[in-house]
Prior knowledge:
The chain has helices spanning 14-22, 77-95; strands spanning 29-30, 45-48, 66-69. It is α+β, with helices and mostly antiparallel strands.
Amino acid sequence: xxxxxxxxxxxxxxxxxxxxxxxxxxxxxxxxxxxxxxxxxxxxxxxxxxxxxxxxxxxxxxxxxxxxxxxxxxxxxxxxxxxxxxxxxxxxxxxxxxxxxxxxxxx
Length: 107
């Protein structure tokens, strides 16, 4: 007996129903920063929506990168300023001269 394809399904197309249940809008933003030679390593921040993500809580789930939260998971002025003052300035001041030029793309 051969399997036949169903002509009708409840609730429309099975593929459309699958896509409706699996579309998630979770997103993160990764900010990368380096010098021209690549020798200076600045901590990479991850920006997400959750203030305290469940996947990073608990013993043994320590996140090696700095995590920042923002409502839409974008790097806005507030998030950028927190990362700039907490991570970029101390690393840059320890390794470079007083003159520092920062070129920002897609901000």
